[in-house]
Amino acid sequence: RQDGRFADTSVWVIGERRLVHLLGCVNSRDQAEALEKAVTLVDDVMGVINVLSVPGEAPRYPVKR
């Protein structure tokens, strides 16, 4: 929320132990990489699992229909 670079995204952040999952939509692959890097810099984060999608791309995670 505090980083305006990601204000136009729809992202879910799920933490499990020291792993963080990023799910949802961003506007570009560059934006997805920047978000992953920002989360990686958080203290005690061991790894980031980035499954973010960009417009026109199917979600990279199961979606209930």
Please describe what this structure looks like.
With 65 residues, the protein is of the alpha+beta class. It is 18% helix and 32% strand. It is built from 1 helix and 3 strands, in the order ββαβ. It has one helix at residues 29-40, and strands at residues 10-16, 19-25, 47-53. The chain has a 3-stranded mixed beta sheet with strand order 1-2-3, with helices on one face. The longest helix is centred in the middle third of the chain and has 12 residues, at 29-40. The radius of gyration is 12 Å and the shape is globular. The model has no long low-confidence stretch (mean pLDDT 90).
Helices and strands in order, then pairings?
Layout: E1 10-16, E2 19-25, H1 29-40, E3 47-53
Parallel strand pairs: 2-3
Antiparallel strand pairs: 1-2
